[in-house]
Amino acid sequence: MNPRTLLLLVCLLAGLGAVAWWQSNREAVAPPVGERALLEGFDRSRVTSLRVDQFVYSLQLELERTSAGRWQIVDPIEFPADEAVVGWLLDGLSQNVATDVVDPNPKGLGFEPPHAVLLVRESIDGRPRERRIELGLADVDGMHQFLRVDGRIVRALGNLENILDRPRDAWRSKHVLDVDPRAIVAFGRRGKVADATGAEIFDLELDAVLDSGGWSALRPFEAALDPSYVLAWLQMFADLRAKAYIDEAVGRSEVVGLDTPDLEFDFTDAAGRKFSLDLRRDRLGAAWFAKLSDRPYVWRVDGSTGDALLIPTEEFVDRQFTRVPKGDIAQVRLVAGGNELWIERFEGRWIVWNGPESERLHSAPADAAAVETLIGKLATTPFVQRVKHTPFATDDAGAGIWLGPKGGLLGGRLGHTVDTPEGGRGSLFQRDGESLVFLLDPAIVELASTPRHALESRQVLRLRELDLVRASVTGAGTQRKYVRTPQGRWQPEGVEQEAKEFALLVDRLIGLRAERWVANDAGGALADPLVVSFTDAFGNPSEFTLALGGDRAFADFAGKRAEVDPALHADVRRLLVP
Fold first, then answer.
1. pLDDT reported for residue 116
2. Angle at 23 between CA 18 and CA 26, to 5 degrees
3. Beta strands in 287-424 (DSSP E)
4. Which tens digit of pLDDT belongs to each residue from 68-90?
5. How many other CB atoms are there within 10 angstroms of residue 371's CB atom?
6. How many other CB atoms are there within 10 angstroms of residue 267's CB atom?
7. What's the pLDDT score for residue 268?
8. DSSP state of 259
9. Are 404 and 410 in contact (CB under 8 A)?
10. What's 464-489 look like in SS3?
11. How far is the CA of 514 from the CAs of 360, 367, 461, 492, 509, in angstroms?
């Protein structure tokens, strides 16, 4: 074969490939000739009812959409419909497409009689419209099926057969309760249950309410409840599913003994709707019968699902000191051993003082890290255990721990340190407004005795050297002035040389720390005062005074006095020596 012939063959093959590619893409995007919507002009939101006649299961079913938009089976029984199944059916009607069959043979295509008949009733501007769909034979490809739609025979996907091919119970809702756990604001539980051996009966009584402070029990005791535990428990009701339907007990709950239930639950949601659920154990098996107060239906639910609702009342109790988010805590009050300590967030920083609250004027800056550590320990500490057999008692009626937002402190009182019959050791603790007694870890109790000095900030002054442009030291009738050059070097004003002695002191001066805070009159009449001043690029001055009181040195800044390292006063004093 010569090169010219080979080249012609290559070009021919390339051309055929291009034509094939063009044709395949055209077929991929272009609909088949005659293809159109299965139900032209169909809008699922206008559907008011559905009628299913499925001959395989001898099923005749009528469904209606309620005023609330939910689907209800109305014939041959009254029962909530499975919203998912109805949704799949409406999806099939709205998304399916069909192709007309040329010269159809109704008998040969399975329409005499059909496999199933579906009547779709709509309301269009107040006028009713009914659409009739009959299901015939499946096509030879196994994916499509012949349908007769309003008398027109078409070929469409076989998904309608898959949806309609199910018994009556598969159309019934398996949800026992239509409830959003997050919308519940109150609940109650009544009933008793035996332990695994049957030797002891536990009372499951519990009344609880949700308010601004979270979930709390009203009966059989008053106590805060664990919010995550309560929500998980309420979620079990939302997940409660029917295992079977007890039709013979519809409207006659006494047939299965639900006229005397083992357990009774009542709920109130945020909209004020009230409803209740009764449960009775099936004496012949490991299941439960269930019935809602406002419905006649009776379900059988799985035994393990019902058993999960039997959580002992004790387990709901919140064993964490407080649920206030750490970032929301703005005040702490600690009282122990006759000492009262207050900590407060003020203008973006923490301050601390010894109580009462009226002594706030005598507060001192607090060390943020020390305060955050203290709050972290208090806010996240769980109680060791609940004390059932030891009554609360204390020798110090005022002792306690409180924390929370301003004006909303949460906490409680500290009692005796005891060894409990339950095998624990610690201090008794009772939250305000509650009847339960807990045991608090001794390490946490020690926090109530935290001394003020352990929390006080020792930072007298904190400046950024990069912001500063001038400084001065004045004392003993002499003043030294310094400027900071654009290169970041300190030098005497008007002198082109580095002020080495001053530069060595800058970090200690702009990061001035106290050895301890003292009263404003501490040290008596102070001697040899030295005034240190720094000015930033915007002209804002920061000034403090160093002075001596005997062999101690003090710094006065922003109306407060701190004892500082005496060596600092001596080092600054040397700057003024001629």
1. 94
2. 125
3. 287-292, 299-302, 331-336, 339-346, 349-354, 364-365, 385-387, 400-404, 410-419
4. 899 999 999 889 999 999 999 99
5. 21
6. 20
7. 96
8. T
9. yes
10. CHHHEEEEEEEECCEEEEEEECCCCC
11. 21, 12, 9, 28, 11
